[in-house]
Amino acid sequence: MKIAYLGLGIMGRPMAANLVKAGHEVTVWNRTPKSVPGARTAATPAEAATGAEVVWICVADTSAVERVLFGADGVEPALRPGMIVVDSSTIAPRASRRFAERVSVKGAEFVDAPVTGSKIGAESAQLVFIVGGAEKTLAALDPLFKVLGKKVIHVGENGAGESAKISMNLMAAAIFEGFAEALVLSGKLGVPAEKMVELIESSMIRSGVTDYKAGFVLRRDWTANFPLRLMLKDIRLMLEAAAEEKISLPALKEIEKVYQKAVDDGHADHDYAATVETVRNM
Predict the structure, then answer these.
(1) Bridge pairing between strands 127-132 and 115-116
(2) Which candidate in 2, 21, 34, 165 is catalytic?
């Protein structure tokens, strides 16, 4: 299959590489020039998308997706009937629906397919795709999903994938904040961090978040698997969506303050697990 892959960050580059390994004809583009072995590199999103069957996007935020699709040198002029645009970025659900409508004017299909699985999942093709879009479009993408991940969860129509993803990330942020505060409190009370982690892993409060992050926290290794600045971006997407629906998320509002303080402390490009350091010093 002929694929344009746009965005070669922590997640995008290994995903593009896995498509190349599977034998697909891949053209890549990134805002700051990067390459993928075996793939052709394009100078613009429009150039990458020209003649492609599938355009796959994985960039930082809502405005970046809009620029890639509809900005100068964007994908829009290359759109044609039968083409599929897949967006694996985590962006505002309302904007995703708007992008889908605009893409459909050209006769192309749009699927929002954000992922969970972090950097390791992208590298090992063990991602879970959280998908919004038409069933028939998903069926056409199935061979590519199988190359990139272990599971596809179709949650609804356009925008539903983004809605589910930010809601899931709300849980991740809240669970990790509880973990961070528990480690800081127990440490101040004289409990070694290793013993607190052992207790958590042996009890009903164990979670996938703590399983994944505990080792990094114990080593104080803040290498970005999920950069803190992107989790803060997602937290703000959650709060925006909640405001649109006229609901309150009081715990999340407090967590946002922790993340902003962590950015101010210099942790923007570290993994969001570095919020432990901020909590420790608050």
Answers:
(1) antiparallel
(2) 165
- Coil vs helix vs strand at 160: helix
Residue 183 contacts residue 276 (beta carbons within 8 Å): yes
Map out the domains of the chain with their CATH numbers: 2-157 (3.40.50.720), 163-281 (1.10.1040.10)
Task: Note if the pTM is more than 0.70.
Answer: yes
* Residue written as token pair 């505060």: 181
- How many CB atoms are located within 10 Å of the residue 4 CB? 30
Q: State both tokens at 282.
A: 């608050």
Is the Cβ–Cβ distance between 87 and 96 less than 8 Å?
A: yes
pLDDT band with cut points at 50, 70 and 90 for residue 245: very high
pLDDT tens profile 95-125: 999 999 999 999 999 999 999 999 999 999 9
Question: What is d(CA 8, CA 192) in angstroms, rounded to the nearest whole number?
Answer: 40
The DSSP annotation for 196-227 comes to HHHHHHTSTT--HHHHHHHHHHHHT----SSB
CA 49/CA 46 separation, integer angstroms: 5
Q: Is 165 part of the annotated catalytic residue set?
A: yes
| Helices and strands of the chain, counted as H and E runs | 12, 9
What is the rounded CA–CA span in Å between residue 11 and residue 15? 6
